[in-house]
Amino acid sequence: MRRLNDTLCIENGLSIVENQQRHGKSYNKWLGDRAKPSNRELLRVAIDAALAQKPADFDALLKLLRDAGYEIKPGKIPVLRGKNQKRFIRLDTLGSGYSEAELRAVLSVEKAHQPRKKIIRPKPDKKVNLLVDIQAKLRAGKGVGYERWAKVFNLKQMAQTVNYLTEHNLLEYDALAAKTASATARYNELSTQIKAAEKRLAEIAVLKTQIINYAKTRDTYVAYRKAGYSKKFLAEHESDILLHKAAKKSFDELGVKKLPTVKSLQAEYAVLLAEKKTAYFDYRKTRNEMKELLTVKANVDHLLGTDERKMEKGKVLETR
């Protein structure tokens, strides 16, 4: 429900409540203290947003509301219910301008729609956080940063960004930057760990094969050496001799001075494989977290012009 509330507020220019801490009160009472939008207010906002898309008729309007997450029961007076809302809301209880008759009149261009917007004022906070900065930039709609951002992103994406920042308590830029850097470092660490494990697993597979080949051909090679490296002996046992030489060359390349047992290699292989599976599970989780954080931070940087300020700072340092 919180996600739906914030999305509608961002898309329609309403303020949202930051730092939703309960302070020992029930969720609904605490929201009421700060004039959080009621379900009816949110429905009015959703209707305003749907009307802004110029639906052809009343049925098209209802379809847009369904797409926005509302369940609709048609009837003499249509009733609607948002996600996680317990009760349906009748259109005729939304106030002036929102009854079915009035909405049909607006859609048939018989009258203009006057949205009833409600400004929800958050409790003053001494700390200026990202939500305040983002909303200020969206309301201003000016500047190179905003214009460049608007070409790539839209309000839906910004609403998703705000939801992520709120849900993960990343309300200050430094906290977002630190979290992103930490996730990226962890991702790189796990990536290095997995690559090292894969390299060693490949080495063990090769080493195991070469040890077996070496053991199987050792007697033949000893006999070849005792025969004074006879060409005739070589011709008769060339396959075994070549396998033996290849095994010795492989040991040298791998830096093996004392041959391990096949049993010890199998045990090491099993441990490494288990560690790799565990690391890969964390790797996928961390990769997804890193991608989300990088996307959110990029959205914030583009909108607030943070990346541009960094570029300008870099240029100044280069000219010194």
Automatic annotation (TrEMBL):
Coiled coil: 180-207
Keywords: Coiled coil
Protein name, per record: Relaxase
